[in-house]
Amino acid sequence: MNKKINVLYYWDLDGFNRWSNIFSKKAPDINLVHKDNTFSDEVDVALVWLPPKGLLASYKNLKGVINLGQGVDHLLKPGIVPKNLPIIRLVDPDMSKQMSAWVSLQVLRETCFMEEYLDQERNKNWQTVRFIPSNEWTIGVLGIGAIGEHVALSLSNFGYAVKGWSRSKKKFDGITCYHGENGLTEMLPKCNILICLLPLTNETRHIINKNTMSLLPKGASIINAGRGGHVNEDDLLEMISLGKIKNAYLDVFETEPLPKNHPFWDHKNIIIWPHVAAQTNTDTSIDQIINAARCLVNNDVAPNQIDREKGY
Description:
CATH architecture of the largest domain: 3-Layer(aba) Sandwich
CATH superfamily of the largest domain: NAD(P)-binding Rossmann-like Domain
Largest sheet: 7 strands, parallel
Distance between the termini: 37 Å
Number of domains: 2
Radius of gyration: 21 Å
Shape: elongated
Order of helices and strands: EHEEEEHHEHEEHEHEHEEH
Structural class: alpha/beta
Strand content: 15-25%
């Protein structure tokens, strides 16, 4: 009889119970274990979100780490994942759909002038605010990878002029693509709305800053569902106060949870969401997690293994 694969789970207790139930049904060969109920030498694979420094190094027989999401920047911080271990990220089509829905909601709030109409509703005022056809809105998407491509194509179906930017050259039907530093400088002046879905790397940290925001048209808006580190928060506040940026719709922040004394909370032009734009769905991601765990214990290369040098 083959030995069971022991998978360490590190995150919330509710999640542990939910994942344990689905593993027992779909993969009897995998035993999900809680960090408080196992010995360090019994763990083969870790399934984690935001593990503390030093935790994973204590499991001497660990073959690899599976991230409970797509963004892996938190795992690349010093002391989190031993350098010899492969890291696998989730690429879940359902997360792409969730992200497309969330981003579309923010875009529609902006392009349909939702806040203005809500104010009119409160004042019982029946009047057209303004009308700008969808084809006159240009939307830029920073990061057109697995999720970004889906978001960009979804927005193009509304009739918006969609442009995408990535580090390397890409091509998608219906999307005007730019790449590299020169491409970013060329794209930004065209964008009424700028969406960030990039991975967080040394190159993309604070990519939305005073200089890049100054290239946007006056009154442009920002949507960030990538990572909080993509936005220089002080620069954003300054550019909003100057009228250069109209609104910012933010799901991610440099410090999470967002501190209660942070100026974003009380700013009328900043809309705050608590990092919920796309959440891991156990039903749609379980098969790739099972496959990744089996690959790792068999010393096979699992799909979606990250390149530590690139940071994603």
